[in-house]
């Protein structure tokens, strides 16, 4: 297990995708003055790591993600990717949305080609690359279908193929499997880990599902109630694929701790 | 509950999963296409009964056969053909100008904040003014010829198409734009292949409304100041108290509008194919 970790770290060191979150504060205009969505936060996502960001709903985890994606400007502090400030959305930072965000007027293939257009490839090569990306998520047979003809899991697979095809250094996922049933979710976890192992982007995975965070990530960051800040960090070294039955009791202990953090017992007692 | 629902709403019954398996695909299609005919036949039957009973005066409420012979008469002396050609030409040209300008300006006001600030409040102020109120102005500006008809029709169509296009642009989902930008698309490609298709259903809804309004405003323009066209012929029929001709012309107007709507709807369905389930 320790050996596995060593090789992992070694491999990732050679690649880029380092995200620096430096004293970032995010406020929104509310009806009664500014509302702090994200309290002062500093953190570094090391290249090639898989970090899960978990916290109660409305705690600002999506806000932090949107800031790294370049959709939202921090009110204070700075965000850098490999030393360069993040000024707006860019293909270096891929985003997977909970609602897939596939374009319904394009087939699965053309959705993937949409991202490839920027490279100005010859048409044949562009199509080949898009097909290869779809094959990677097991959807080569569905290339010519429209999103509305695909199931939720398949849609998200197209979205994953579309994003990875562009070759992002960082991949942000905002509760990507939140709309899927438990069975499909497990399949998607395996698929995501396989593709991530190949492409080695730095992943930030926003979820409110503790189990999902523990099964997938190297690092789990727990956020507080709004205004959110990072309150606890776990470094997980258990070999993947993980399962609570196989991966030892430490995962279960961490799980209980995180659940306690998210739903303090006193609250529960009050509500009973 | 379900049973009363079905008897009240024939469209529901048609798509009901309980009934669907008993109907073959062809039979279902036949039923769908045939349903309006049942309604037409029903109304025509009542109309014929009233006409045959002699309860109402022919001059006030003509029977179906009188309306039919009035139609044949107008066709044989050639006025129907020229009126149809004139009216359709006016509606077509006016619609073309209005829809083109409406889509173009809607894309602009939807996309460019400065244009929006300069024009939207003013255009919204114009929207409640009915087409018929414009006819006197149009006649002063463009005379009694074709110009005033084109103006009234294109003005009406323009406002509706502009309004819908503008709103379609406003409701382009934010996630589509976010996805597009983090996939590295240029603004031009984003506009052509994301914003436009995302707004297309609204644009087509506007165009469909525009077609209906083109006929409405055309007849308004022709009723007061024209020497040909369906609207003019209606006005003329009033002078001779030819209710049979009036009925004929009204039915023709209804059929024209319905056919135009069907055509636009079919084209829209093809172009915005992803909107249907």
Automatic annotation (TrEMBL), chain A:
Pfam families on file: ABC_tran
GO function term, MF aspect, one: ATP binding
This protein's UniProt keywords: ATP-binding, Nucleotide-binding, Transport
Cross-referenced InterPro entries: AAA+_ATPase, ABC_transporter-like_ATP-bd, ABC_transporter-like_CS, ABC_transporter_ATP-bind, P-loop_NTPase
PROSITE patterns, alphabetized: ABC_TRANSPORTER_1, ABC_TRANSPORTER_2
Family in the record: Belongs to the ABC transporter superfamily.
UniProt protein name: ABC transporter ATP-binding protein
Species of origin: Salipiger bermudensis (strain DSM 26914 / JCM 13377 / KCTC 12554 / HTCC2601)
UniProtKB/TrEMBL annotation, chain B:
InterPro entries, A to Z: MetI-like (IPR000515), MetI-like_sf (IPR035906)
Subcellular location: Cell membrane
Keywords recorded for this protein, A-Z: Cell membrane, Membrane, Transmembrane, Transmembrane helix, Transport
Statement: the UniProt record of this protein carries the keyword Cell membrane: yes
Keyword Acyltransferase: no
Main localization (coarse): membrane
Annotated transmembrane regions: 33-56, 93-113, 125-144, 213-234, 246-267
Record's function text: Probably part of an ABC transporter complex. Probably responsible for the translocation of the substrate across the membrane.
The name this protein goes by in its record: ABC transporter permease protein
Organism: Salipiger bermudensis (strain DSM 26914 / JCM 13377 / KCTC 12554 / HTCC2601) (Pelagibaca bermudensis)
